[in-house]
Design brief:
two-stranded parallel sheet; 2 strands; mainly alpha
Length: 321
């Protein structure tokens, strides 16, 4: 961008997309690199007919451009200050709304229809890719030919005999070798079978000995455990017998003293005496208390009757006088 706000293209030209001349079949890995020119920064927006393009020779000085920018900023600041000081139109009352009205001297027709133009372009079709020719390697070397006259080659009946003898000898030798090899393989297989049988017998014997040793070890451990259990029980019985004898010897003098002490503290008592003390005597005391209460109540009642009679007689005596 130049100081006047005009756009100047300064980048080097480059192809938009690297593509071949022929049309390739679509694949999943093919990614098209395309973009929308409406979001390209190099595309100028707006009307380009009214732009004043100043040639490079006639461009203004930098100081003059800075002065013009300062003047433009000051004018914009004054316009914003005037807009802030100006009173805004009050809001419309309920049921009404504001409408834009032209106050200019010359009226113009207002229309919401936007003038649009359709422009189209036709691109060239892709050419179909021709069939790939068959690959034929380039010829190397020189072509040479030879002419054989009659009688120049060998005599078949005379010269084929040693070749035939050699072939027959080699065939017989190879056959004998194969037969000997088969016999040797048969001997080896027989030896392998014998070795496998011997090894299987030895493995069976080893397994039998291992099982016998395992049974012996288990029997030995079982007998040792049984003997330990017997010794443990004998030791427990001996300890019980010793403890019983010790307790008998210790309790021989302890039992009479304990019984005497308990009898002295009243833990051993006569059932008849205990019944009389706990049941009969409390019942007897309750009955005596009830009888005494009845007697005390009767005496109080008799005292009250005598007092009332005496009081009445005294009043009657006073009245007679």
């Amino acid at each position: 961008m130049d100081p006047n706000g005009n756009y100047i293209f300064s980048s080097r030209p480059r192809p938009v997309e690297n593509r071949s001349r022929y049309k390739e079949p679509p694949t999943e890995q093919t990614h098209s690199t395309y973009g929308n020119i409406m979001y390209d920064r190099r595309v100028v927006r707006g009307n380009t007919y009214v732009q004043h393009i100043i040639p490079i020779i006639a461009q203004p000085d930098t100081v003059e451009v800075q002065i013009q920018q300062q003047i433009r900023r000051r004018a914009l600041a004054r316009k914003q200050a005037r807009g802030q000081l100006r009173t805004n139109t009050p809001e419309a009352v309920q049921g009404r709304k504001h409408i834009d009205v032209q106050t200019e001297q010359y009226l113009e027709e207002l229309s919401d229809i936007i003038v649009a133009k359709d422009i189209e372009c036709q691109t060239d079709d892709f050419l179909d890719r021709p069939t790939t020719p068959l690959f034929i390697p380039a010829k190397s070397g020189k072509d040479v030919e030879t002419q054989i006259e009659e009688g120049e080659l060998f005599d078949f009946d005379r010269e084929v005999q040693p070749v035939l003898e050699l072939l027959v000898g080699k065939t017989i030798e190879q056959s004998l070798g194969e037969v000997m090899e088969e016999e040797e393989l048969a001997c080896l297989r027989a030896q392998q079978r014998a070795f496998k049988e011997l090894r299987n017998n030895e493995l069976a014997e080893v397994l039998r000995l291992q099982e016998q040793e395992r049974r012996r070890s288990e029997e030995k451990e079982r007998r040792i455990a049984h003997q330990k259990e017997v010794l443990k029980k004998e030791k427990e019985v001996a300890e019980k017998i010793a403890a019983r004898a010790c307790s008998k010897q210790y309790l021989s003098d302890l039992l009479p003293a304990v019984f005497t002490s308990l009898r002295g503290h009243g833990y051993f008592y006569d059932p008849v005496e205990k019944d009389i003390e706990t049941n009969f005597i409390p019942w007897l005391m309750d009955e005596v208390n009830n009888s005494l209460e009845w007697r005390y109540t009767a005496r109080n009642l008799l005292d009250n009757i005598i007092h009332d009679v005496v009081q009445k007689r005294h009043e009657m005596f006073k009245e007679t006088q």
